């Protein structure tokens, strides 16, 4: 491939561009990062993400201009191995885990990563969604033996304090998928968690979710996880993650997280209802891949050695163009049969 760096402007798709640059071995230069903002340049969570990339790779060259509005990234070898990273609390651990999931199968050594920070927030996928859905997407591509995500501590915003361990084997050749049928929902599972609040909150969230879900299905089980002591992080919070499994192996997910301390008070029952309604919307959209994980599936389909097929309800056009530009692949969108 050409050694000339790909050039982009702006902070949109910052993480995706660096991930694709690392996988393809192509240099990328990103200019005008929030150059018109009152606070221009990289945010702390983006700088933390760059440091994580530096730990995963060997020989990467990263240059940031003095104002922080320009980044030149020349990726090195994907090394993997054991790594330890304190994630910036402006974003959840899921923000960093999503990147590791994309990179880990192609490292030289199996990854064992210990990440610390916020395990659930209102912006990024929670560790529960990654454990119940993202991991299952990886297994569809043949990445299974040794694949594990363990949540040892939970941490709510703004101060975090959570800790997870992500283990992933290496996989040189991905299994091609042909996943065109979503199937019908057969069961719903979930996790309701709380940190540094009353233990009754988890049961109240479950009751709220069931008040919606019981109208559609009987096979429902929502686990409760009330963390205590050092395992409960540094901030109060609570949330619920729901996922529906279909007869064809598709998993749909939805979640809801409480507001931070000091903001508008969140009622646990209302939060459970909100998560259930979001799950119903996700099921209604259809497709054989959960909407939040379509970009991950598309990436692994592009990295496979043969054609792959999946039924999706919508894909971002700019993301498809970016993927094609880095990996020089063809992404065909066919009408629904």
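-> sequence recovered:
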């Amino acid at each position: 491939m050409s050694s000339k760096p790909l050039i982009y402007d702006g902070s949109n798709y910052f993480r995706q561009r660096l991930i694709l640059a690392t996988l393809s071995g192509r240099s990328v230069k990103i200019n005008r990062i929030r150059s018109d903002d009152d606070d221009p340049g990289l945010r702390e969570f983006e700088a933390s993400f760059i440091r994580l990339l530096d730990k995963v790779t060997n020989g990467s060259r990263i240059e940031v201009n003095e104002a922080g509005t320009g980044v030149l990234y020349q990726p090195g070898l994907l090394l993997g191995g054991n790594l330890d990273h304190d994630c910036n609390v402006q974003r959840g651990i899921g923000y960093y885990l999503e990147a590791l999931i994309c990179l880990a199968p192609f490292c030289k050594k199996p990854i064992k990563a210990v990440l610390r920070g916020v395990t659930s927030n209102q912006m990024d996928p929670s560790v529960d969604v990654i454990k119940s859905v993202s991991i299952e997407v990886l297994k569809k591509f043949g990445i299974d033996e040794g694949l594990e995500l363990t949540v040892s501590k939970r941490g709510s915003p703004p101060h975090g304090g959570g800790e997870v361990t992500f283990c992933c084997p290496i996989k040189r050749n991905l299994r091609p998928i042909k996943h065109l049928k979503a199937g019908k929902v057969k069961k719903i599972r979930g996790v309701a968690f709380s940190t540094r609040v009353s233990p009754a909150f988890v049961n109240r969230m479950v009751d709220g979710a069931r008040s919606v879900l019981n109208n559609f299905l009987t096979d429902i089980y929502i686990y409760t996880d009330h963390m205590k002591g050092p395992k409960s992080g540094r901030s109060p919070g609570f949330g619920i993650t729901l996922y529906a499994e279909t007869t064809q192996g598709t998993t749909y997910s939805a979640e809801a997280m409480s507001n931070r301390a000091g903001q508008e008070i969140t009622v646990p029952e209302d939060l459970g209802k909100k998560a259930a309604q979001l799950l119903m919307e996700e099921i209604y959209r259809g497709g054989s891949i959960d909407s939040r994980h379509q970009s991950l599936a598309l990436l692994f389909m592009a990295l496979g050695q043969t054609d792959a097929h999946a039924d999706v309800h919508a894909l971002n056009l700019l993301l498809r163009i970016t993927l094609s530009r880095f990996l020089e692949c063809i992404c065909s969108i066919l009408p629904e049969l």
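The chain has eight helices and 16 strands.
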